[in-house]
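Supplementary Methods, section 5.1.

A reviewer requested that the exact input to the structure prediction be made available. We therefore reproduce it here, unchanged from the version used in the analyses.
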Amino acid sequence: MPPYRFEVPPDWKPDAAKGRYVVRQGSDFVQAQSFPLVRPYTDALFAKVEPELALRMGAVAKQTGGTVSASRTVSPGGIRSHAYDLKIGDRTDVYTFVLRGRHELQLICSADPGVCDHLISSFAATT
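The structure derived from this sequence is encoded token-by-token as follows.
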């Protein structure tokens, strides 16, 4: 995983696997998963990647029986990123795509909005 850090509730239980980190409490969770990019990403590509991410989120919504209810730009660690709200029943999961260099970090937050907001506000790239 690229060198990032972020804060999660301290009493949540961690579960790490290769390229993936998850913390849970009951049915709530936060997940970070890293994927390699074929070509280096720069902020100049921000608008160009949006259609692909929107298409990907549409597929996730179809798989889960949910709907993409909102999209927005967020800046975890000062990195301009795309975020999508996926509404599944009475739950809203927030997917954030942090692209930097040759890495995509996908953050998924299925928890109270305060937990999800803190995930983004505490996020930092360490190198």
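The helical segments are 46-64, 113-122. These observations are discussed further in the main text.
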